[in-house]
Fold this protein.
Amino acid sequence: MSWEEANKDMAVYQATLDAQLAAGVDRKIAEGRARSKALRAWREAHPEEAAAEAAASAKPAAPAAATPAAAATTAAPAPAAPAPTAGTPLPVATAAASATKREAPLPTGGVPTAARKGGEDKHRLLALVPPEGIQRVEREQGDRVNTWPHLLIEEFVAMFVLLAGMAIFSTFINAPLRELANPNLTPNPSKAPWYFLGLQELLRYFHPMVAGIMIPTFILVGLAAVPYVDRNPSTRPGDRKIALTLFTILFMFGATLTIIGSFFRGPGYNWVWPWTQGVFFEL
């Protein structure tokens, strides 16, 4: 039986529907609850009609046509049941006199509350889906380069160019060995190799303990600690401004000291102008 054909209490239906919509319940859910409550309200108000309706719906339909013999057989009265004698137990009723009503609580439709009273809602992470599982990530051109042949070919070309340049340079420029060292004749100025001229220049400004031990130790320890202090994984210059600034300062500091020791120091390791007093620099 459809909702339009069923007996219902429309006043209860409308009141329940308005109350559910005012509470913010979805309209379909609110209509279902209102219909259920309207049907129950009518059955409670009209128990006799509800029982008759239930019996009519439970009774099986009679066949459309029947033969005369079948009709006569059907119309014949059933034999009366024998009266119970003394000591015979009474038959047990096969059906209840009136149908019992079973009412289930209405669904709340709300959000489940926390297990702990007054606590916050807890959520569990079921799975971690990588971005590739949702959408395909296109890599930019040049993110990855194979070692062979791209990188090694460039390194081999650079090595051969450098080797050819050194061969040409050594062919046209003479680099003889100097005479044997004379302990009684110290050359003036006496300079260290070019890669130590920066330290020798520091000795002109600081104590040997500071220039020869403390400053080099500080520089070496700082370089070794850089990978542990600066953990930025980016390789773009725009994202590494602090690292590039510190490296530039350190590089220019060492280069400036080396250039001064090579071209601006003369006899007695005193300051000279190379364009007026000569260049005291040897390979």
Notes: The radius of gyration is 52 Å. Residues 61-78, 84-99 have pLDDT under 50 and may be disordered.
